[in-house]
Design brief:
The protein is mostly beta strands. Helix content is 7%, strand content 46%.
């Protein structure tokens, strides 16, 4: 039987994939920059279009989501890569991402109608420490979670979650400066059980509904007594511990708030025998309450037969149509065997809402 080029690549590239997968499991072996980025730099990004289904490019429906385009991103900078979380402006026209090498990336998002077309006007800069200097060393640089508190992607305030030295800090930022931090969140005592490389991965401030003002946190893989994945509701009217049901041994890599007060959770599973998988679950606003065991609704589950990599970042914004657009980004671990992917899906059944002026 004839094989498509994509399938030939997947079969003949098994050894290469095994090495890349190892880097997902042990990123400290990747070629992460050892120096710090001293200042903001303009960046030219090349965006190569991808199809989510390599074997059937015309396919647009995946689970309960609709494909809106994607790219493999390249740039000539040793600091480009390692993107573990991102935010997208309310208009959907720009993004701001953080890297576990202690840097940020800002770019405009270009569209062809509703379809993702590429990035432009990109810049990259250092995340600053409390001393006003760029963060240095893995224990300080390893940012994994990111969420906007106020403003947009060019000027505002955001939460940044770091692992190794576990902390969630509040960062003011402008177009040419990110930090120093100004305070942060007090983490629950239970977070002291987190291992160095499995800290807070997901930060999602709720802006609507009965939990408005609450920040949802999830660790990557902190099990409760039943093996489910621990999370917390911080602040707001009803703070307390929550858990996401462990279905199939996935780890949490990010989360983002939805317009109705719920959240979406991005998960990843890696096994040497089966490769990498990705899953997105939607958690309804009514289910977010102290002590809850959350199962949620699976919006999408994908294996590496589809065009995924080490998917670590998810962000949401509202389109003019009322659809919720999910933007995903991958962490390439600074490995030549992995990719920085950017992709968008639409959630068609989201309730129509009044769009922000200029929103897509």
């Amino acid at each position: 039987m004839a094989c498509s080029p994509a399938r030939v690549w997947r079969n003949s590239g098994a050894a290469i994939f095994a090495i890349a997968a190892f880097l997902i499991a042990a990123p400290s072996f990747a070629d992460k920059p050892t120096s710090v980025l001293p200042h903001v730099e303009r960046l030219a990004i090349t965006a190569i279009p991808i199809d989510f289904d390599r074997d059937d490019p015309g396919r647009k429906q995946f689970g309960k989501l609709v494909w809106r385009g994607g790219f493999t991103l390249y740039a000539k900078s040793p600091f480009f890569g390692g993107y573990s979380a991102l935010i997208v402006s309310p208009s959907g026209k720009s993004l701001l991402a953080i890297s576990d090498a202690g840097t940020w990336l800002r770019a405009n998002i270009e569209y062809d109608g509703r379809k993702l077309r590429g990035l432009s006007e990109a810049s990259i800069g250092p995340i600053l420490g409390s001393d006003g200097k760029p963060l240095a060393g893995d224990a300080q640089q390893d940012s994994e979670g990111f969420a906007l508190i106020d403003g947009d992607t060019s000027r505002g305030t955001a939460y940044v979650a770091f692992e190794r030295n576990h902390r969630v800090l509040r960062y003011p930022f402008t177009p040419d400066r990110f930090g120093p931090p100004a305070g942060g969140l007090a983490l629950p005592a239970e977070t002291k059980r987190m291992s160095a490389n499995r800290g807070i991965e997901a930060v999602a401030p709720i802006r609507a509904g009965r939990l408005k003002g609450t920040v949802v946190l999830f660790s990557e893989r902190l099990p409760d007594k039943n093996g489910n994945l621990r999370g917390w509701l911080i602040g707001g009217p009803t703070p307390g511990a929550i858990a996401l049901k462990n279905v199939g041994g996935f780890d949490i890599t990010d989360a983002a708030a939805l317009p109705d007060g719920g959240i979406v959770v991005l998960e990843r599973r890696f096994r040497y025998s089966e490769g990498v998988k990705m899953r997105i679950r939607r958690i309804a606003a009514k289910d977010l309450k102290p002590g809850a065991l959350l199962s949620g609704e699976v919006l999408l589950e994908a294996t590496d037969a589809l065009n995924i990599d080490n998917m670590e970042g998810i962000a949401t914004h509202r389109a003019v149509s009322g659809e919720t657009i999910l933007t995903l980004m991958s962490d390439d671990n600074f490995s030549a065997l992995q990719r920085t992917l950017l992709m968008q899906f639409a959630l068609p059944d989201a309730k129509p809402v009044l769009a922000e002026p200029g929103a897509r």
